[in-house]
Amino acid sequence: MGKLKLIAEGIIKNNPTFVLILGMCPTLGTTTSAINGMGMGLATLFVLVLSNITISAIAKLIPEQVRIPSYIVVIAAFVTIVQLLLQAFLPSLYETLGLFIPLIVVNCIVLGRAEAYANKNSVIDSAFDGLGVGLGFTIALTILGFVRELLGSGSIFGWKFIDGDGILAFVLAPGAFIVLAYLIVLFRKVTAKKA
Amino acid sequence: MEYIIIIISAVFVNNILLSQFLGVCPFLGVSKKVNTALGMSAAVTFVMALSTLVTYLLQYYVLVPLGIGFLQTVSFILVIAGLVQMVEIILKKISPALYQALGIFLPLITTNCCVLGVALLVVNNEFTFGGDPHMLNLGQSVVYAVASALGFGLAITLFAGIREQLDLNNVPKAFRGVPIALIVAGIMAMAFMGFSGIV
């Protein structure tokens, strides 16, 4: 039960995108379609779980003063692994996400969880925390990508239901900002009613 | 001529913030006042020019000759983190006044994705103008980095000006804070789209 609660907190109460507003660059930059958003979310999820596990395991060995650089090196190592794996097995996704894969290193969500959770909790709890926050991020990115794809190119997960183009602005930069703004408002409304 | 194209392209057409989404966190975080926005953009310009210079040399004189390109991400982030720390120490000694002004913003820059982003864009030849990918030489890379940082500064300063006005208005409750700021950013991005096609 406790583990499930950790996951649920990451998805709803501490949702990185809608509540904490962290990691905005990949959120806005990669969500031109639902599939791209989901791919980015899953790549981040992978790094988040592994870095949380590693950091909680070695946290006691790292001197207080150099902890941030050490965490960044751990995270960068996992990001490189993801980068090489994607390049080998999913080259098309690697092409579309491009620059945003190496930029997972500077995603504040990953470093944030390491600093706020993993370095003072057990390995298993940290793994579940990473899983919860990572899922929250993946779900948020998929929804954002879904809405932008629906309005911008008139398709759902790549399946096109209109002829011609959608509203181009939603695939481009302005749409990303505006759709995210409305999703945050919606999320606030829904969760406020529940509480 | 090439330099002018690079500058116009980086500042207006492919604005790093509003069309490439790099550095959105500080864009939303430190843009409540025009003064802090100016301080942040000065610090970013400084670090970005320096880090692009160093990572360019690192890529072509260390990583490529040794065949260890896969260490790119790890080495770049370490270089940037080290550089930020060094700049902070040097500034503290040489120019306490500037250190006072930039002080709080410097450590934040390590995790600002536009610094690492521009460094990677430059060495991966992902800078495009006129539709073709373009290999940049050292001089062009530094000019591109400075111009990108100026684009960042332009966007964040304009945005801070709008947000100062926004504080005086009665925004619907659910929109307060980030959502209304994102909508403003969206409208700004739309305005910047008007520059596309210039270069």
Summarize the structure.
With 195 residues, chain A is mainly α.
Key attributes of the depicted protein:
heterodimer; A: 195 residues; mainly alpha; two-stranded antiparallel ribbon; 2 strands; 2% strand; globular; B: mainly alpha; two-stranded antiparallel sheet
Characterization of the model:
The complex is a heterodimer of chains A (195) and B (199). With 195 residues, chain A is mainly α. In chain A, 69% of the residues lie in helices and 2% in strands. Chain A is built from eight helices and two strands; from the N terminus they run αααααααββα. Chain A has helices spanning 2-13, 24-29, 34-58, 67-89, 91-97, 108-116, 123-152, 173-194; strands at residues 155-156, 159-160. Chain A has a two-stranded antiparallel sheet. In chain B, helix 3 packs parallel to helix 7 and helix 3 packs antiparallel against helix 8. Chain B is mainly α and 199 residues long. The A-B interface holds A 21-26, 28-29, 69, 72-73, 76-77, 79-80, 83-84, 98-99, 102-103, 105-108, 111, 169, 172-178, 180-182, 184-185, 188-189 and B 18-25, 27-28, 70-74, 77-78, 81, 110-113, 116-117, 120-121, 124, 126, 174-175, 178-183, 185-187, 189-190, 192-193.
How are the elements arranged and paired?
The complex is a heterodimer of chains A (195) and B (199).
Chain A (H helix, E strand, L loop, with lengths): L1 H12 L10 H6 L4 H25 L8 H23 L1 H7 L10 H9 L6 H30 L2 E2 L2 E2 L12 H22 L1
Helix pairs in contact in A: 1-7, 3-4, 3-6, 3-7, 4-5, 4-6, 7-8
Chain B lengths: L1 H12 L10 H6 L4 H33 L5 H23 L1 H7 L2 H5 L3 H11 L4 E2 L2 E2 L4 H29 L11 H16 L6
Antiparallel strand pairs in B: 1-2
What topology, given as strand order, has the largest sheet of chain A?
A: 1-2
What integer is the average pLDDT of chain A? 87
Oligomeric nature of the chains: heterodimer
| Class per helix and strand makeup of chain A | mainly alpha
List low-pLDDT spans of chain B.
none
* Helix content, binned percent of chain A: 55-70%
Major sheet summary line of chain A: 2 strands, antiparallel
Number of helices of chain B: 9
**Cα distance, first to last residue of chain B?**
12 Å
Q: Could you state the order of secondary-structure elements of chain B as H and E?
A: HHHHHHHEEHH
